[in-house]
Amino acid sequence: MDPPNQPKSLSTNLFYLFLLLSTNLLTLFISSTFYSSSSCSLNPISSTTTFTKRSSPSTTDSDGTGNPETPQATIDLPSEFLAFSSGQVLPLGFNTNFDSDTFYPPVGQACTRFPDELSRFMSYKVNGSCPDDELFAQKLLLKGCEPLPRRRCRPAAQPDYVEPNPLPTSLWTTPPNSSVVWTAYTCKDYTCLINRVKTQKGFDDCKDCFDLHGREKNRWASRQSIEGSLDFTIDEVLATKKPGTIRIGLDIGGGVATFAVRMRERNITIITTSMNLNGPFNNFIASRGVMPLYISISQRLPFFDNTLDIVHSMHVLSNWIPSTLLHFLMFDIYRVLRPGGLFWLDHFFCVEDQFLDVYKPLIESIGFIKLKWVVGKKLDRGAELREMYLSALLEKPLKNSW
Ligand SMILES: *[C@@H]1O[C@H](CO)[C@@H](O)[C@H](O)[C@H]1NC(C)=O
Ligand SMILES: *[C@@H]1O[C@H](CO)[C@@H](O)[C@H](O)[C@H]1NC(C)=O
Ligand SMILES: *[C@@H]1O[C@H](CO)[C@@H](O)[C@H](O)[C@H]1NC(C)=O
Known about the structure:
Residues 1-74 have low confidence and may be disordered. 35% of the residues lie in helices and 14% in strands. It is α/β, with parallel strands linked by helices. The relative contact order is 0.08. Bound molecules: 2-acetamido-2-deoxy-beta-D-glucopyranose (3 copies). Residues 266-267 line the site of one 2-acetamido-2-deoxy-beta-D-glucopyranose. Keywords: Glycoprotein, Membrane, Methyltransferase, Transferase, Transmembrane, Transmembrane helix.
């Protein structure tokens, strides 16, 4: 039942090694940034003091306690961070639901590993306007400070905000430029985002997605896929279940949420997770009139066990994710799917050898039933890289899924 045990403990160890190394690299980074800046500063001594002090919280933290109330750690954690995350006594006393009389609001355990960024992120005027620093905030979140601890200020917004287009027009209409704060992105309006495939060099996540009349128009939409194709269609996936029994679900890393829009046309409610990687994906999804969810792939999915009918993910789950994290994520998908629920793993990609050694056994170990399993070559970067795709339709067993 548990073949991945061996490789798992190995990869767990590698994961911790990686954490250890990255922590040390971070320290090195902080110290080198710091020393190079202090060489032009007139006050190297006070800077050195700061550095020593700053390193203490992450040291305290690496033993896993993460307790902000130890005196050493409180030295320079931002006061607003402590105001939020420290224990807060329940006004009505002990609560049996909590089994406690104190509330510890959650923040990402890794936040305190980045004391400099955390200080910067948490220095805002309480009750005032938040800094317009989305790009910086997202980097902090992606490093593991998730959920972000900023809570008591008003986020940047356009002064001339325009209300969204009404449904159903909004589903396939480019939203107003003024619905987005553009500071964090290379493009400063939707016209630029739509044209960036032609006008901008270099890689961008979902580069052609904002053009609703380009490739998005036809994704998953054809009636039937070609035999052996990696591109399943929504209709053939839904046809594997009794009509109407797929009603609610999740699209992980769903770009501009065309999947959710297509499903909405079939009266199915899909929540789409997305980051804002050089584009206002969350605003765009919301403007279309479907539900965005701003969480990274390392966050535990915020759904209860055995609740969703379908989980879909395209192009996001792949070999850039540490395999231990991927193992956690796959189990989390299994957890939130109801028995009989579908996991549509759409264009997972990796290198051929990795697939056989790591990913195939990993995916097979979770406990899904394979309804469809198609492997194909990924040639966009050249055949010599031996990259490949897997598209799979997996089902959580209806009986005995526990
Ligand atoms: C913010 O507003 C709350 C509620 O009115 C108030 O208690 C608090 O003192 C204010 N904080 C600051 C820093 O202005
Ligand atoms: C967005 O801005 C661009 C550039 O200013 C403009 O050409 C375009 O018409 C605007 N789009 C909308 C929907 O207002
Ligand atoms: C979606 O629901 C509406 C309202 O109940 C219904 O009229 C429509 O036929 C449904 N569409 C599909 C594709 O089931």
